[in-house]
Each structure stands twice: as structure tokens, then as C-alpha cells.
Specification:
single chain
């Protein structure tokens, strides 16, 4: 998966402002971030933007919502993670059946 460096910075910026709160949304085909706060909202966004990338953090609320989403094969995900030392990072996944397979996340321009 390839996204612009500025887009990655926007996702990381949102995550750093709310490290313990739910961060959930989509990255549409124009790399516009659209946040969601409920299962219904994210389900509607994924339906309206079938080629979008889901992004989320590791908060309990985001994990609960993410686990209840019915994904289509090929759905791409970006996870914002924080390690034990407080360092933030991004990981990319591709949905294949019920499995999320790690994929390479490339930053451009």
C-alpha cells in the first residue's frame, strides 16, 4: 500500500492528540481522512467508499468496533500502534477472508 507522507503525518497527528481515545475512520481515494465514532458510521463509510482504507488505533473502543465490522476481501487497513516506550507507528494490513495479512506501507512525496 502506498500513501502520501503528509497523509501518514495527518493520521499520526490525530493519534498523538488522543492516544487513549478511539481513532477510527477511512482514507478515501483522494486520501481525505473521514473519522467515524460508531459501528454504524464506519459501516456506512466503508459502503459509500468501497475503495477506501480503514484506519484505527489500538484503543479499546476502536478495537471493539473494528472486531464487529464485516470486511470484504481486499479491504486495506492502517493501524496506528504505540509501543511500550510510547513511540507511535503505522502498520498496514490486507483482509483475506477472516485473516488480516501484514503488507508493506510505502510513503510517497
Amino acid at each position: 500500500m502506498k500513501i502520501k507522507r503528509t497523509t501518514a503525518n495527518k493520521i499520526m497527528g490525530q493519534a498523538s492528540k488522543q492516544p487513549d481515545n478511539c481513532l477510527l475512520g477511512i482514507l478515501d481515494s483522494n486520501e481525505r481522512l473521514i473519522n467515524a465514532f460508531t459501528l454504524d458510521e464506519i459501516t456506512q463509510l466503508l459502503s459509500d467508499h468501497s475503495d477506501s482504507v480503514l484506519f484505527f488505533n489500538q484503543s479499546t473502543q476502536a478495537s471493539d468496533i473494528k472486531d464487529r465490522i464485516v470486511y470484504s476481501d481486499g479491504q486495506q487497513h492502517i493501524e496506528v500502534f504505540q509501543d511500550t516506550e510510547g513511540v507511535f507507528g503505522l502498520r498496514a494490513y490486507l483482509q483475506k477472508g477472516k485473516i488480516q495479512t501484514p503488507i508493506t506501507l510505502e510513503l510517497s512525496g
